[in-house]
Known about the structure:
Elements: E1 10-19, E2 22-32, E3 37-41, H1 48-56, E4 63-68, E5 71-72, H2 78-83, E6 86-88, H3 101-106, H4 113-116, H5 121-144, H6 160-172, E7 178-182, H7 190-205, E8 209-213, H8 217-223, E9 226-231, E10 234-239, H9 241-246, H10 248-259
Parallel strand pairs: 3-8, 3-9, 6-7, 7-8
Antiparallel strand pairs: 1-2, 1-4, 4-5, 9-10
The protein binds adenosine-5'-triphosphate and magnesium ion.
Amino acid sequence: MDAEVTPPILEARSLTRRFGGIAAVRDMSLSIAPGEILGLIGPNGAGKTTMFDLLSGSVRPSAGTIRLKGRDVTREAAHHRLAQGLGRTFQIPRPFPDLTCTENLLIARQNQTGERLFANFLASRRIAAEERAAREKAHEILDLMLLTRLADEPARFLSGGQRKLLELARVMMADPALILLDEPAAGVNPSLLEVLIDRIQAINARGVTFLLIEHNIDMVTRLCSRLIVMANGSLLCEGAPDDVARDPRVIEAYLGGAAA
Ligand SMILES: Nc1ncnc2c1ncn2[C@@H]1O[C@H](COP(=O)(O)OP(=O)(O)OP(=O)(O)O)[C@@H](O)[C@H]1O
Ligand SMILES: [Mg+2]
C-alpha cells in the first residue's frame, strides 16, 4: 500500500520520555502504513523498547502525541489501545508457566461476558457459547502458529522459540490490526527462526500490520521494506534496509555502541 495516500494506522509525533534527567526517547516521530512491516533498529539502550512502551500505553510520554487509526490515544490506557487493535509482545515473553498453551490463550482474550454480567440462565448459556467460541479460536490460532502439538502442554515446557510463537499467538487472540514485536528472534534457534519469519508473513498476509524491533539484521531485511533507526533516544535515519545498512551514521552508531 502507498504510505502517501493511505492514512497511517499508527502515528507518533515528537514523542519524548524522560526518566529522571535522561531522555530515553527524544522527539521521536514515526508513521506506520496499514499492511506494512516496519522495522525499528538501533544499538542497545537506543530507546526502542521505551518507544514500544509509549506506543502501546504502558508508559506515558513526557511530551508528544500518538494517533491510532486517526484517533488521539495519547492518554488512553494500554488495554483500551489493545481493544482498538494495538497489540504488543514483550522482549522477555511472560507466559503463565503452569498453564497449558491453550489456557494461556484463553486468559488473553478480551471482553468476556462472564466478567461483566451476573449469572442468570441466559447469561450462563451465553458464557458457555463464548467459551466454546474462544476455545475454537484458540485452537485455530495455535494451529496457525504451528503449536497444536503443544496445546495441552504447560508453557514451562516450551523452548525459547516456542515461547515467542506462543507470545504472538496470545496477542492474536485480541484480533489486533497492528502488532508491536519486541525482538522476536532473540533466543530462537535457526530452524524455529524460519518458522517465525514464515508465520509473521502469514499473519501479515491476513492484513495485520507489524512494527518489529530486531537485532537480527537478516530477519529485518527479509521482512521489512522500510527501517527506522534510533540511537541515543532519537531518530538517526530511515529508509530501505540496504541503504540503511550502508549508511555511515548507522555503522558509526553500532560501532560506538559496541566499543562502549
Ligand atoms: N523505567 C525506566 N527507568 C529509568 N530508565 C529507563 C527505564 N526504561 C528505560 N530506561 C533507560 O532508557 C534507555 C533506553 O532503554 P530501552 O530499553 O528503551 O532501549 P532498547 O533500545 O530497547 O535497548 P535493547 O536493544 O538493549 O533492548 C536506557 O538507557 C535505559 O536504561
Ligand atoms: Mg529493548
